[in-house]
Design brief:
Oligomer: single chain
Strand order of the largest sheet: 1-3-2
Radius of gyration: 19 Å
Largest sheet: 3 strands, mixed
Low-confidence stretches: none
Length: 147
Amino acid sequence: MQDQLLRNDDCACYLVEAIAKKSQNIKWETSVNGNKVSHKRIRRVSIDQFYALVTGEADAFYQICMVLPDVIAEVIKDGSSVSVPKDTVLEELSNIAKNIDASSEELSMAMAMYLLGFSSYSGFARSDDENMINRIYEYAKRIAESK
């Protein structure tokens, strides 16, 4: 890998973190025999930043997350052997969902999950804007209505 990176300026290597602590695209630094090593084209990226790199859309991961609840519901509805396990974070998600003025509990729960898990990711960033949750809800509703 290192040889390829040194010989080809168009190459890069990415460690994509599906669940990162925050949105990031940073140089991956590690230690080998007690010495720090890194290369500018070996990167640690959160999944939102990876999707942005691959698609060219800054909020591509956010867009996928907005349609994912419908996809999951469809799979569960069509799959007779699919079961939904009990989740230990359900109570926390329920508390967040109660603050979301959405037309369905399922949509509220999905949005709460995204806000909890991806609060620093592109498209999900929390701000002082009180209308952020409503904008997310309206965006998801428009997508659902356009089907």
